Amino acid sequence: MGLFSKEYHQSSDERLMELVVRGDERAFAALYDRYQRRLLNYFHRMLWSDRETARDHVQELFTKLAQRPASYDPSRPFRTWLFSVANNMCKNAYRHQVVVKAAALELRQAPDRVDAQNGVEVDRERFRDRLDEELDRLDPDHKATFVMRYHEDMAIKEIAAAFGCSEGTVKSRLFYTLKKLAERLKEFDPQALERHGKA
């Protein structure tokens, strides 16, 4: 049993998907274990920092995958395909929940709470809040590109594959986004953006 389980956890994503298509539940469980936390974090960052909404989207994505595993295109790396599906789900959420997004922005623009003991921590938290606020003001594709690159540590090549666009387009989006964020977050240390990517 332990050996069998180890074999699943050492298999590539693509191999696991081959098994999922054949109805192998353990392969599906291995993929779920591998990606559910990363997807939860991705949806959380993309969908108004709402944990419940993020959980619902992870559940929905894996339910779709369980019901229609053949929708995966084996000619694409599984990870880039998965994130492109997640990105499309976010776009649908933006279309259907414009009111929720507006309400979340209103709440986020409320005056900062200044009750932390440590000034550095207040600044760090305030920076994160302001960054989230500014990311929400960006075009969804620019926001998703930033999140994939700096929060998910995805390579330019992988992001391009997830969007079905050129690497040049991804680089251009990142350049534009970083330039915009640097302008809008002038009150913070200019190095903060870079550090936040790894925080």
Can you walk me through this structure?
- This protein is mainly alpha-helical and 199 residues long.
- It folds into two domains: 1-77, Orthogonal Bundle (Rna Polymerase Sigma Factor, Chain: A); 111-199, Arc Repressor Mutant, subunit A, CATH 1.10.10.
- The chain is built from eleven helices and no strands.
- Helix 8 packs across helix 10 (167-184).
CATH fold name of the largest domain: Arc Repressor Mutant, subunit A
The average pLDDT is: 78
CATH superfamily of the largest domain: Winged helix-like DNA-binding domain superfamily/Winged helix DNA-binding domain
Structural class: mainly alpha
- What portion of the residues fall into strands of 2 or more residues? under 5%
Number of strands: 0
Characteristic terms for this protein:
11 helices, Rna Polymerase Sigma Factor, Chain: A, Arc Repressor Mutant, subunit A, about 200 residues, mainly alpha
Topology:
Layout: H1 2-10, H2 13-21, H3 25-46, H4 51-67, H5 78-96, H6 98-108, H7 119-137, H8 140-151, H9 156-163, H10 167-184, H11 192-198
In short:
With 199 residues, the chain is mostly helical.
